[in-house]
Amino acid sequence: MTSLLLVDDHPLFLDGVRAALAGEQDLQVIGEAHDVATALALTEELLPDVVLMDLNLPDGSGADATREITALCPATKVLVITMSADDAAVVAAMRSGARGYFVKGGGREDLLHAVRTVAAGGAVFSPAVADRLGAWFSGLAAQPGRELFPQLTDREREVLDLLARGYDNRRIAKALFLSDKTVRNHVSSVLTKLGAADRADAVQRARRAGLGAND
What we know:
The chain is α/β, with parallel strands linked by helices. The chain is 55% helix and 15% strand. The strands form 2 sheets. A 6-stranded parallel beta sheet has the order 2-1-3-6-7-8, sandwiched between helices. Helix 5 links the parallel strand 7 and strand 8. It comes from Fodinibacter luteus.
């Protein structure tokens, strides 16, 4: 029997997941959480085999919750289930330790397959996400910014790339599932490490290096 914890703040979606799992003898929902704090508390208390995690929660990011869960309870696996198929969101989830990424709206059989695959120790992605993720990593490997800005962390490089695409702080925060404050800190760090006079100067340098070219 695989035990599941559902984490989502949309009652209708939770109803749909429960209905999809109903009658499956090998899957059992043992708890539900509507925010990060409850998700962390229930994971530590119940030790579910798999957590089905939304990324947008009222009190924080599902990616951050995933990172904490995988650190606190290494045996618990996380399957992200979200509306967003944005490249940055997928990568953020994977870096947080999620074992799968399922886009809401997929079929019941696809969801069951995803849950069972992650429970068995595998990794799984919705087909569209798998295609985009492969393209994203292929592009990242050849991205000149990785060679030209070695002083930046991967996360800072992601922020710089989005700055070069014209994203403001709020849009960057949404794309990477970070708080506005965390984005401000990353932007400040990027400017300092690049020795940039201001945000516009950093953007110009990034674009000359080839960042921000996907939009």
